[in-house]
Amino acid sequence: MAGTGIFTEILDGEVYKYYSDGEWKTSSSGKSVAIVNPTTRKTQYKVQACTQEEVNKVMEMAKSAQKSWAKTPLWKRAELLHKAAAILKENKAPIAESLVKEIAKPAKDSVTEVVRSGDLISYCAEEGVRILGEGKFLLSDSFPGNERTKYCLTSKIPLGVVLAIPPFNYPVNLAVSKIAPALIAGNSLVLKPPTQGAVSCLHMVHCFHLAGFPKGLISCITGKGSEIGDFLTMHPAVNCISFTGGDTGISISKKAGMIPLQMELGGKDACIVLEDADLDLVASNIIKGGFSYSGQRCTAVKVVLVMESVADELVEKVKAKVAKLTVGPPEENCDITAVVSESSANFIEGLVMDAKEKGATFCQEYKRDGNLIWPLLLDNVRPDMRIAWEEPFGPVLPVLRINSVEEGINHCNASNFGLQGCVFTKDINKAMLISDAMETGTVQINSAPARGPDHFPFQGLKDSGIGSQGVTNSINLMTKVKTTVINLPTPSYSMG
Ligand code: G3H
């Protein structure tokens, strides 16, 4: 159970502690932040409302701990990461339980998130040992006008303090996808979890604590974004921010100083369906892509652009599958569970009502109970409807019928977002041309969009983000290149 067994020390009465200087602490604010269970809509957990002074303290510790961590051999850093991964996986049950309660993720998917996170940490440790263990050696005489008098040695060095801000929908996985690359590269790490997802994050951080990382190297600050959000992101000690979430990321990037940013800010992933597509395959992928975790994934299929000639058949196939989706509590592994908050449910309802007023065809009756919204496929959506452009982050999927491939590509490219997209066709040549024409960070051919496997590059164009994720790219983003040049008095050619 969450907060029990090895996790007892992270709880103070009924409020979870924050993690600073290698210890679990209660905030001097005397205040807490409530975490509302999306299913019951009642307070499930409470976390500390940390103060700005506590943020300052954590930053000070992070700066000094990083100096010695950077001098810790790479193999030792990797060893500790492997240990944390093992502890995390051993304790998947209580962590998954808090995911179920805090963010209403179905129980099985919650376990998958924790296991996937352990695997990511281990992969990152191995990849770090490989890519950080080698540098480059350049010779000056390849550039015009130079003799071989300069030997240039390059290696990758840490940035310093990395601030990680994961979102509510993958609080554990998208936290470790920032923590592990930062640590293997020799950085220290300050984590600011989302409010919903904070308790899962605190459990995950305790696994790193038990693995034996040095004091102050990892910290986890909880509290209200309105009180400590800007203070954290604009803190002078921060040398890199890795953020996943909504358009708050745009304001963070405007306010952040001259530091590397890794931002993933959502998408409106299009699914383009051509006339020759395998419609059964498309229908299964639309269900998986559009409705897993109730559509609350940045990589969810968020608009289907289908050729008119096959639209009726596809819509019928998807409708039949939607009817089979189970709706209810995450504890019972229902496919569709409550969305994260009442405000999110209200936003989704606003998009649905707009589509209704403007004449979309409802393939199911619209139904809502509290934060629970039944899966809904909207056919004959037109570009004047908000749902054609905005991301509901819920189980509502619009279908736009198109008369040419160009129309589909134009719709996809007119979006402010550019995260992923997918195209279904049996013609690989056409698929490649469409992929090249789509202004998105990734295009999946004959499958729904997805970030994983976690070592693949993951990036968005336009308002979908800055920088690229995936294990290797994250390690590289959290390092800088350092060079040392050996200058010789006379040119030297080995074996010359
Ligand atoms: O919500 C954003 C995540 O990066 C999506 O990850 O494709 O594994 O669901 P996923």
From TrEMBL:
Top enzyme category: oxidoreductase
Active site: 264
Keyword NADP recorded: yes
InterPro entries according to UniProt: Ald_DH/histidinol_DH, Ald_DH_C, Ald_DH_CS_CYS, Ald_DH_CS_GLU, Ald_DH_N, Aldehyde_DH_dom, ALDH-related_metabolic_enz
EC number of this enzyme: 1.2.1.9
A GO-annotated cellular component: cytoplasm
Catalysed transformations (reactions): D-glyceraldehyde 3-phosphate + NADP(+) + H2O = (2R)-3-phosphoglycerate + NADPH + 2 H(+)
An example molecular function term from Gene Ontology annotations: lactaldehyde dehydrogenase (NAD+) activity
Record domain Aldehyde dehydrogenase: where: 24-483
Subcellular location: Cytoplasm
Keywords, ordered alphabetically: Cytoplasm, NADP, Oxidoreductase
PANTHER family to which the protein is assigned, alphabetical: ALDEHYDE DEHYDROGENASE
Family (UniProt): Belongs to the aldehyde dehydrogenase family.
Protein name: NADP-dependent glyceraldehyde-3-phosphate dehydrogenase
Lineage: Eukaryota, Viridiplantae, Streptophyta, Embryophyta, Tracheophyta
